[in-house]
TrEMBL record:
This is 3-dehydroquinate dehydratase. It is an enzyme of class 4 (lyase). Homododecamer. Transmembrane segments: none annotated.
Amino acid sequence: MRIAILHGPNLNRLGKRNPEKYGTKSLDGIGEDVDAAAERLGVSAVHFQSNSEGALVDWVHEHHETLDAFVVNPAGLTPVAYPLLDALRDTGRPFAVVHISQWHALDGRERADIFADSAAVYLAGAGWHGYALALEALVFKATRP
């Protein structure tokens, strides 16, 4: 299996931005952990981050035929990124949604997650480890009848 790990806006600032909320691990550090989990599971991970929804959509369009699944953290795009959601749905591939924090109740406000109903796997609040958990869950689902 080949699985894309997509990171939305501001996730390139992980480790520096609000460490009390998001932890101190950088995006590169998360990528290393995901790659180690992928190797353990016998799959490969491909990483892409952009602060632009259009770049994320373009990347999905360009690469979806070479991928089996997606792990996506839409970050601040979560309540509004219908083009990204449509691009992921249109691939016909399963996807997992990961939020490092309890995104739906961040700052005490209820927030909608437009990706939740379409996701094969949904993880919120597991910190950076949620990426590896999502990867493992997608592989588990793909290899079980």
